[in-house]
Amino acid sequence: MAGNRQFDITSLGYLVVASDELGEWKRFAGAGLGMQVVEKSANTIAFRMDDRTQRLVITRSPQPARYTIGWQADSAQALDRIASRLEEAGIAVRQGPGALAAERMVRDLITFQDPAGNRIEVFYGPVLLDKPFVPGRTHSGFRTGSLGLGHVVLISPNINEMKGFYHDLLGFRISDYMFKPFHAYFFHINKRHHNLALIEHERNGIHHLMVEHTMFDDVGQGYDVMLANGHKIGVTLGRHTNDLMTSFYINTPSPFMVECGWGGLEIDPSNWQPIELTDGPSLWGHDRSWLSPEQFEEAKQMRIAAATKGMRASVNVLPDRYLVGSDGIGR
User: Fold this and answer.
1) What stretches of the chain show up as alpha helix (H) in DSSP?
2) SS3 for 217-285, per residue?
3) Which segments in the chain show pLDDT lower than 50?
4) Is the pTM of this model over 0.85?
5) What is the pLDDT of residue 322?
6) In this predicted structure, what is the pLDDT of residue 329?
7) What is the distance between the alpha carbons of residues 239 and 299, in angstroms, rounded to a whole number?
8) pLDDT at position 6
9) Strands 173-178 and 233-240
10) How far apart are CA 232 and CA 222, in angstroms?
11) pLDDT for residue 314
12) What is the reported pLDDT for 324?
């Protein structure tokens, strides 16, 4: 598939998290992030972001893994192709039972594990709702649609094996990569600059989930709301060098973060060429408390170097990212 630009997997569909902190998650994702709360049962709470029945699911019911990452396939035929490639590579693939498909609100799905042990579900045929999305706090909405939920970043000590798995077997394409201040690969499957990233780290798991707002002020107001409600900032406000997203990261009730951003870069997957990032991950800001002291200092010096040479980037204002009121103020 190395030369094939047709993607069998087209977007990030959902994330399922096993947690006993349903109340904290409701406060965090509902009133904090602004997702719509859907009380499914005494043991499960779901969150909407758009016309999907659910994008984020938190459950304390018995789960096969702490996290389940759901990727959307282009079709039933694409789902079969993915399963065949995995099985040929010796990866155990299970057909999702009807009960699980109903629980995930999809027509069909397969399940397997990546080399780091993350539980992956690939599905097709999501259930859509006619009822409009109602945000958990006032904001202009999330940028999803064909771009999917957002992006997810995974950590693993064996980043090269993970890279081969997602690139060679699942068909993700490399957007760019870097070796300083940490080793990372960024991958796309649609016009979003990256739908998946891999960071070399001493342990396995999810580093963060990114959600993108449709208006810039939603990010700043979200920052204020999160702090006012006692949530802890994981990475300060800043702007990335690769996808040009302006964002901050907030610690969730589970051991990973959510990145809240605006203005992410759209690419053309048919002709995009990956490059090595040599100026660090951020143009400015984004103090990363999760880095080692040495990496933290290196990242800081790379930002200072970028400022010294005057690195600048255009702002990605697209039609679905702004509304202009009659008085000239965005509404």
Assistant:
1) 22-25, 76-88, 98-104, 159-164, 216-228, 293-308
2) HHHHHHHHHHHHCCCCEEEEEEEECCCCCEEEEEECCCCCEEEEEECCCECCCCCCCCEECCCCCEEEE
3) 1-4, 325-331
4) yes
5) 55
6) 42
7) 13
8) 78
9) unpaired
10) 12
11) 85
12) 54
Predicted confidence at residue 131, as pLDDT, reads: 95
Instruction: Mention every residue, 6+ apart, whose C-beta is less than 8 A from residue 189.
Output: 7, 9, 10, 11, 171, 172, 173, 195, 196, 269
Question: 72-90 pLDDT, tens per residue?
Answer: 999 999 999 999 999 999 9
Say how far apart CA 221 and CA 215 lie, in whole Å: 11
Q: What pLDDT does 64 receive?
A: 84
**DSSP state, 86?**
H
| CA 63 – CA 143 distance, rounded (Å) | 29
Six-digit token string for 315: 């702002």
| Distances, alpha carbon 71 to alpha carbons 6, 15, 253, 285, in Å | 16, 9, 23, 31
| Cβ neighbour number for residue 18 with a 10 Å cutoff | 18
Rounded to 5°, the CA angle 79-81-87 comes to 105
Cβ proximity of 112 and 91 under 8 Å: yes
Number of Cβ atoms within 10 Å of the Cβ of 265: 17
